[in-house]
Amino acid sequence: MTSASLFDSACAARLAALEVENRYRVFARLEKSAARFPVFRADTADGPRDVVVWASNDYLAMGCSSVVRDAVMAALGESGAGAGGTRNIAGSHGVHAALEAELADLHGQAAALLFTSGYVANEAALSTLLAACPGAVVFSDEKNHASMIQGMRRSGCAKRIWRHNDLDHLAALLAAADPAAPKIVAFESVYSMEGDIAPIAEICTLARRFGALTYLDEVHAVGMYGPRGGGVAERNGVADQVDSVEGTFGKAYRLVGGYIAGR
Known about the structure:
This protein is α/β, with parallel strands linked by helices. Helices cover 36% and strands 21% of the residues.
């Protein structure tokens, strides 16, 4: 048998197994209209029909706002599409630096850095931070997003998983750790799958008590909470207690990209 036929056979077997397990994905085909959001046109077996989409990340319908759309068109008219290269070569422009400064100010941090997505921001930031410090230990909420988990895995550092939003369990794990070890407590503000919010102030207090830094994922909160849209930490008046914040433009802000802001 050829390599092609072997791969074809193996993939066909895997796909068949997914169908048996009812895990084979068939994408729902939807047509979006800015004028009718959140009503979409769906292609169904019985023909097209209108559906109301409650699963969209466009929480505030900003992706359909005439203000946002006009700003996008103006930027395209002035600068064209795309950055023209990586930021290491010819793709770092004044608008990037201005946006990073605005994001740092939004979260009360010293600086910010843009990424292509929130997923990439989490994975790159956590893997880099943790790998840079020998002997580092990360304390991760058990419900953290896959992007955070992947970053921790890539770092190769020691991991301690604490029960979701369980302050007593987190305190016990921190107390059991080597006091001299560099530590990061990583968690989210809004857990979309659970529908709950982390006790940010209490987690930050615990982290400081045991000499740990805090890393907060605010992807489901930026643009939604706080007087300026800085997230739950801003809303709760504890943004100054957080050491690093990760956010995205792909949800409430309804564009594309992610970022890290930190001290």
